[in-house]
Amino acid sequence: MKNRSSTSMQLECGQYCWSMTIGFRAYLMNISSNVMLDARLDWDGAHVFIRTPLSVPVNEQFATCTPTTYSLSWPLPRLPMLIPWPGPHATREMPMSRLPETMDTQSSPVRIMESDIRMASEEPMWMPSVLGLSAGAVMRSCVRRTLVQAKRLMCVFLLLTDLRWWTLELVTKSSLSDCETYDQMKLIGARYFYKGYIAGGGHLNSSDYTPRDYEGHGTHTLSTAGGNFVSGANIFGYGDGTAKGGSPMARVAAYKVCWPIINDGDFFDADILAGFDMAINDGVDVLSVSLAGDGSIEYFMDASIIRSFHAVSKGIVVVFLGGNAGPFPATVLNVAPWKITVGASTIDRKFPSYLIIGNKAYESYVVYLGGHSHGEEDTQTDYDRVTQSHYDFLGSFMGRARKLQTTRSWSFLGLENDEGEIPASSLWNKSRLGEDVIIANLDTGVWPESKSFSDEGIRGLIPSKWKGICQNQFDQSFQCNRLKLIGARYFYKGYIAGGGHLNSSDYTPRDYEGHGTHTLSTAGGNFVSGANIFGYGNGTAKGGSPMARVAAYKVCWPIINDGDCFDADILAGFDMAINDGVDVLSVSLAGDGSIEYFMDASIIGSFHAVSKGIVVVYSGGNAGPFPATVLNVAPWKITVGASTIDRKFPSYLIIGNKTYEGQSLSQKSLPEGKLFPIIFAGYANAADATAKQAEMCEARSLDARKVKGKILVCLWGGSGSKVYKSWQAALAGAKGMVLANNEAAGNRIIADAHFLPATHINHKDGLALLSQLNKTSRSPVARITTPITLLDTKPAPVMAFFSSLGPNPVMPEILKPDITAPGVSITAAYIPKIGPTTYVYDTRRVSFNSMSGTSMSCPHVAGVVGLLKRLYPDWSPSAIKSAIMTTGHIDPNRAMDPGLVYDLETTDYLDLLCAFGFNQTQIKSLWDRTYACPKRNIRFIDFNYPSITVPNLKRPVIVTRKVKNVGPPGTYKASVCRPDGISVKIEPDTLEFKSVGEVKGFSIKIQPAKNGGSKDYVFGKLTWSDCRQHKVTSPIVVKQI
User: Fold this and answer.
1) Which residues, in sequence order, are bridge partners of residue 365?
2) How far apart are CA 871 and CA 681, in angstroms?
3) In whole angstroms, what is the distance from residue 172 CA to residue 149 CA?
4) Structurally, how many domains does the chain consist of?
5) I want to staple 785 with a disulfide (CB 3.0 to 4.6 A). Which of 253, 652, 851, 1020 is the partner?
6) Quick one: pLDDT at residue 351?
7) Distance in angstroms (rounded) separating the CA atoms of residues 544 and 884
8) Is 217 noted as a catalytic residue in this protein?
9) Are 891 and 1029 in contact (CB under 8 A)?
10) 976 pairs with which residues across the strands?
11) DSSP conformational letter for 941
């Protein structure tokens, strides 16, 4: 038994604020020091007792305590205070005493605030009769009827403004008139529950301890169920009318269990459980719960299952959402038979706008307000145990964090589902989100203040192997975070030697271009809710390894002589990253476009890194769709191409009876329902510009007198980027812009942050639009709709049009790129220094930006590598590479359990270089250990790569490979999808593995068809599969000569 002590306190009129439930736990807070104590309030009819098990010392002016059970009591003989008493109109005075003489009441005022902790077992039986309310109800004595009869100088005032916590406040006589007219009978209760959130790694400031809704979700759902009548309710004037809930005259109460997102979750089982308990005890009749739950049969491991059953057993009706994972079967949630589970349907209302042109035909366009799904699903395990101190404690289980909304890349790759739920089988779950892996990039630096690099949710000390620093001696404003962004350096001597100039303020790892911040956050950024660009793609941003530590190595500077990243700086960056102890390097830079392997810093630096066990991931270049343009083709690198995801941002051009779908991220939009004249830019050329220049909206090519107030149709081509053309249109006074692809651009469209309302359409639609404009006898009018966010678009993934293609221009026998990953319209962290277009005249500022390129694909793979590194720290870089490559388009969950891998050692790479013709002296620049080229003949096609490429097939050839078992024992059977016109035979076609680490070899006999065949590259695949889920697929690429 712990010791107890007690003291007395004085409460002066109007000086202190009570927010409490008598008989419940509460918080005792010293305002001047912000020290809070978990407390319990009791009343014996003459005294209020505050009992608190102290875990921290109280403010020294109050008392000096060691952790013990600390009891405070004060007799109540003096200050009048109204408490409802049994009987229809009776009242009773509750007097209060004075503090001890040693208490400094000015510097140590005391506040008592309501807690979210459940009722203790010694619940006093006096409360229902004294308060005239059910157990657990808040004192409500400031009711007009009581005050009119009592006519006291003081009253208890119930403050309910905007869902604030219930506050019982002592007020002076001057406030009495307000109190007399106050009659809050609608919102009769509000509580908040946070201990599960704190245990799960969350952090709350003192101002956060409130039931106030800071996200809007709870206010929306509660008002839908029981909101009062409110006339004139609308959104921007649409849907105007009288808002009301389903039971407008019902009393309502709010139980706050959701908080800012941590670890991809914002509501925790412990808090849901406590919320149910308190709602049951408070006496609610109906519970509306727009949260996910019971997605599995683990009924006794789910808070919503346990307490919803308790609620129903008490006669409370519990209504749950059914989830937003449709239209796929077997995705319904909250399926416990005692719950009412609700699906969503439409109502008989829409928001059409009509275009009338020429023949008076109407074209209806229904405004879609975006793909936001609030109120869903559980995401990951909460590794902290729920407390067993509850008075009716039945058992304990591992709580799960839950979340409300997600973004797209990682759900598209299968790490989470569309509702943000992380399946138990996900690599995210198995790898603990990449915890403690160190991911670094070589890029333009980093913006450390970005929320993507916050410490929130990061646990434990920095890995002991880390030797890096935060290089900020000339920029004290640059501070690495304590746990997430653990290092940053910059390298500039190569840039200076190349003719660059830096001011004293430039010597910093800070990112002034946005590229490095975007790529690093994509690989290892933390969870950030509400990430979007101008409201589009809104959701929770996160990197591939959200719990990884990250570091930035700045090697790129403002462009000089058509270059901004110099070899000397890249090499220095590699050396320091290796020395500092990184695990993964993401390098979204160009390199090794020639065979001069020993004259390329990226070749030398990446080889050193891989030989030290660091996985190096490179972008494959943006010179597509032309063949043999792929870059960074060294066999030890993971080279990444870009592909699409199943999300787009459509914006429609509506003209006459035609609708053209384009894409856009325009911040501005045209007025709803208003039509504007539309003109082809080629007819609006300035006096000193040609029609050809004008049609492509080049600089100073447009006549403002012809353009002003109109929608301008520009062609993509000539000089200037897509967004630059929108800038020129805006300068000329256009109201909107349609960017139509020329023939060379074809169907390649991307959403961009244009400077005015705009949409980008493909070549086919562009031709149709111009034809329609030419056929219209009168001046045509049209409108451009505001962009929206659409998910689950098909087909996806598709190779991005800009992504550089193979074959490998240096070693055709090594297939490159190795893998594709999301690289189109990727939303990630950005910098506030420049606008989203990077143009100096772009004054807009965003915290997140949408960017496209293999630069964006590269960190996606680096993030997945981080997860695999966490799961398999002893795997070689080549084993990790093989696990990723044998999935085709990156599939993180399959890479987690590849079954077989094509493994390589450092000497295998050196042997390949020997076969390529490099001598011992050259190879020594890569490898500082003793090595001699093998005397045996080495063929490129036998290099143990996860792909099989024969670029010059004239006669039958036998290719050899070997695979290592990294899964359970099993038997694998080969199957072949042969390339057109090619015969393929595998020998042996069955491989049996009895242990982990066992290696088996096989051969592939490839021969041309007898009747000849295509002289172009043809494609097939070899798949090794067991009777389980393992399918190890290698592409077969052949070109006959």
Assistant:
1) 353
2) 56
3) 18
4) 5
5) 652
6) 63
7) 14
8) no
9) no
10) 1022
11) G
Q: What is the DSSP string of 891-903?
A: -HHHHHS-SEE--
Residue 729, Cα to own-chain centre: how many angstroms?
A: 34
Name the token pair of 117: 């902790």
Say yes or no: 423 and 466 in one domain.
Answer: yes
The yes-or-no answer on residue 443 being catalytic is yes
Residue 829 sits in the same domain as residue 858: yes
Question: Of 157, 185, 213, which residue sits at a domain end?
Answer: 185
Asked, for residue 915, whether it belongs to a domain, the answer is no
Residue 672 lies in a domain: yes
Q: Where is 145: in which H helix or E strand?
A: helix 144-150
Cβ neighbours of residue 659 closer than 8 Å, sequence gap 6 or more: 363, 365, 652, 653
- Tell me whether residue 8 is in a domain: no
Flag residues of the chain having pLDDT under 50.
Answer: 1-183, 296-297, 354-407
Q: Which is it for strands 317-321 and 826-829: parallel, antiparallel or unpaired?
A: unpaired
Q: Are residues 776 and 812 in the same domain?
A: no
- Same domain for 209 and 132: no
Q: Which residues contact 741 (CB under 8 A, 6 or more apart)?
A: 715, 716, 747, 748, 749, 760, 761, 762, 763, 766
In a domain, 793, yes or no: no
Helix pair 854-871, 515-524: axis angle to 10 deg:
30
One domain, residues 247 and 322 = yes
Residue 389, exposed/middle/buried by CB under 10 A (0-12, 13-18, 19+)? Answer: exposed
Task: Find the catalytic residue in 115, 664, 701, 855.
Answer: 855
Of 155, 202, 209, give the one whose Cα is nearest residue 182.
Answer: 155
Cβ contact 83:139 at 8 Å: yes
Whole-number Å distance between alpha carbons of 824 and 843: 24
CA 11 to chain centre: 48
List 1005's β-bridge partners, or say none. Answer: 958, 985
For 641, phi then psi, to 5°, come to -95, 170
Give the whole-angstrom CA distance, residue 723 versus residue 964.
50
Give the chain's length. 1041
Q: What is the pLDDT of residues 928-970, one digit of tens each?
A: 888 999 988 889 999 999 999 999 999 999 999 999 999 999 9
What is the residue range of 995's domain?
Answer: 900-904+944-1040
Is the Cα dihedral 927, 931, 932, 933 positive or negative?
negative
Residues ≥6 apart with Cβ < 8 Å to 151: none
**How far apart are alpha carbons 665 and 976 in whole angstroms?**
44
- What is the reported pLDDT for 874? 96
Radius of gyration of the chain (CA): 34
**Cis peptide upstream of residue 558 (ω within 30 degrees of 0):** no
Beta strands (DSSP E) in 324-433 are 340-342, 352-357, 361-366, 378-385, 398-402
Query: According to the model, what pLDDT value does residue 354 have?
Result: 47
The HSE-up count of residue 145 (CA atoms within 13 Å, CB side) is 8
Q: Give residue 77's pLDDT.
A: 34
Residue 359 and residue 239 in one domain: yes
Residue 1009, pLDDT score = 79
Residues 6+ apart with CB under 8 A from 932: 920
> Which tokens is 563 given?
């270059």
- Tell me phi and psi for residue 197, to 5 degrees: -65, -45
Residue 944 CB contacts under 8 Å (≥ 6 apart), including other chains: 902, 903, 904, 908, 961, 962
What is the spatial distance between Cα 51 and Cα 41, in angstroms, rounded to a whole number?
7
Tokens, residue 420: 């943000």
Q: Annotated catalytic, 372?
A: no
**Does the predicted model carry a pTM greater than 0.85?**
no
Catalytic choice (213, 269, 418, 443): 443
Alpha-carbon separation of residue 671 from 418, 663, 713, 783, 894 (angstroms): 33, 18, 19, 9, 48
Question: 350 and 233 in one domain?
Answer: yes
CA distance 152 to 171: 11
String of DSSP letters for 673-715 = T--EEEEEGGGSB-TTS-HHHHHTT-TT-B-HHHHTTSEEEEE
Which residue among 310, 390, 515, 518 is the active-site one?
A: 515
Task: Give the torsion through C-alpha atoms of 1008, 1010, 1016, 1017, to 10 deg.
Answer: -30
Question: What is the distance of C-alpha 166 from the center of its chain?
Answer: 34
Q: Alpha-carbon distance 355 to 814, whole Å?
A: 56
